[in-house]
Every structure is written in structure tokens, then in C-alpha cells.
Automatic annotation (TrEMBL):
The keyword Hydrolase applies. It comes from the Archaea. Keywords: Hydrolase. GO terms for molecular function: phosphoglycolate phosphatase activity. This is HAD family hydrolase. The lineage of its organism: Archaea, Methanobacteriati, Methanobacteriota, Stenosarchaea group, Halobacteria. Transmembrane segments: none annotated. GO terms for biological process: DNA repair.
Length: 212
């Protein structure tokens, strides 16, 4: 049973929401055209979901300059189209019912994140949010998590919190910030190629039992 936490932090993409595969495939086709690299479905899945950890490291392993990739990637992403093709996982609805402070810590860039939150009408789920940048740091760096904790007023003052996410970087960020981690496995261990540990490991948030 999940303990009664004082606050909740959540990742966005792959945790609360996902995007239709046709959108992802189209983006990687156009990015590939820009870079002269034909991305396979598996390569697109690996980068989109961060399956092997650091996306930049993986890109370098494939001989692709990360800076050039991300410039092309962000140029090819259409915020409104992405928002229209993004869907909310049914089991994510529990967030709307949380009485505790709730924060969002996501690698999704702000120009993409805001239209998604608007389209799905979930802005009011969050009391604070941070779209990570080079300046804020990236999970598993604890800095983005600590920033949102401070925005929520929970800091390191005896509050017990948890971060839920779909990636190893989310678990790492939680533990590095001294809070618990829930790993929600949306993809499956076989497709991911490894098992991600966490204080709680679920395939759906429906598996969590909340105190009454």
C-alpha cells in the first residue's frame, strides 16, 4: 500500500500521457530527412522513450550529433498537432483527486508542454511545474526535483514525498533528491531491455492502494 505522502511529483510523457505512434513516426521521418539518417522504428522508440538512459549518449553511439538532432527535432515538432495527438492514460485520473500538493517535473519542453496541458485540460492538476532545460538540469539530477519541491513549499523540512515516472531517470532523480520513487512501466521489460527498480513498481497506477 502506498504510504500517505505529504506531496506528489510526476513526470508527464510516458507517465500521465502518451502520443499516438503515427505522430512519433512522422517526426522521426522528417528529422531523419534533415540529418541524412533513416531512423528505424526501434531507434525512434528508444529515443522517444529514453529506453537506454541518456538520449544524447545513445545518439552519439549511433554517430549522430545530439545538438544537431535536438535542433532538428524541435524544429519538426508542431505543438498543436502534438497536443491533438496526445492522450491521457485512464489510470492517471487519480492525480486530480490528490489532496496533497502536486508538482510536475518533465523533460517535455515548455512550448510543447503547455499546449498538451491545455488540450487535455489538466493544468489545474499541478500546483507547480518545471520543464527541464540545460539551465535547470535534467533528471536524474535532483536539481529540477528540488526546485519544484521548493515551489510547493515542502523542501527538506520533514515532508515525505514521492515522484512517479516511467523512466530510470525519474527514479534516479527521486532518490537523488531524497524522496521515494514509483516506476510505472508503460512499455514492458522486454521492449525496454531491462528492469527499472523503484520503491514501487507498477504497470498501472490502478495497482496503487491509497489510504482511506
Amino acid at each position: 500500500m502506498v504510504s500517505e505522502y505529504d506531496f506528489w511529483l510526476l513526470d508527464l510523457d510516458g507517465t500521465l500521457v502518451d502520443v499516438e505512434w503515427s505522430y512519433t513516426r512522422g517526426v522521426f521521418d522528417r528529422v531523419g530527412d534533415r540529418l541524412g539518417h533513416e531512423f528505424s522504428d526501434r531507434e525512434a522508440e528508444i529515443i522517444w522513450n529514453g529506453l537506454t538512459g541518456s538520449r544524447d549518449y545513445q545518439l552519439r553511439e549511433w554517430g549522430i550529433d545530439p545538438g544537431a538532432f535536438w535542433d532538428a527535432f524541435h524544429a519538426e515538432e508542431d505543438p498543436l498537432v502534438r497536443a491533438e495527438q496526445t492522450y491521457l492514460h485512464d489510470d492517471a485520473a487519480f492525480v486530480a483527486d490528490l489532496d496533497e500538493p502536486v508538482g510536475l517535473v518533465t523533460h517535455c519542453q515548455e512550448f510543447l508542454c503547455e499546449p498538451v496541458l491545455d488540450e487535455l485540460d489538466i493544468h489545474d492538476w499541478f500546483d507547480a511545474k518545471l520543464c527541464c532545460t540545460e539551465q535547470t538540469g535534467w533528471k536524474p539530477d535532483p536539481a529540477p526535483v528540488e526546485y519544484v519541491m521548493n515551489e510547493l513549499g515542502v523542501g527538506y523540512n520533514g515532508h515525505q514525498g514521492v515522484l512517479a515516472g516511467d523512466g530510470a531517470c525519474d527514479v534516479g532523480a527521486a532518490w537523488n533528491a531524497g524522496i521515494d520513487a514509483i516506476h510505472v512501466e508503460r512499455i514492458g521489460h522486454e521492449r525496454r531491455g531491462r528492469c527499472v527498480l523503484g520503491d514501487y513498481r507498477v504497470q498501472s497506477f490502478d495497482e496503487l492502494e491509497f489510504p482511506q
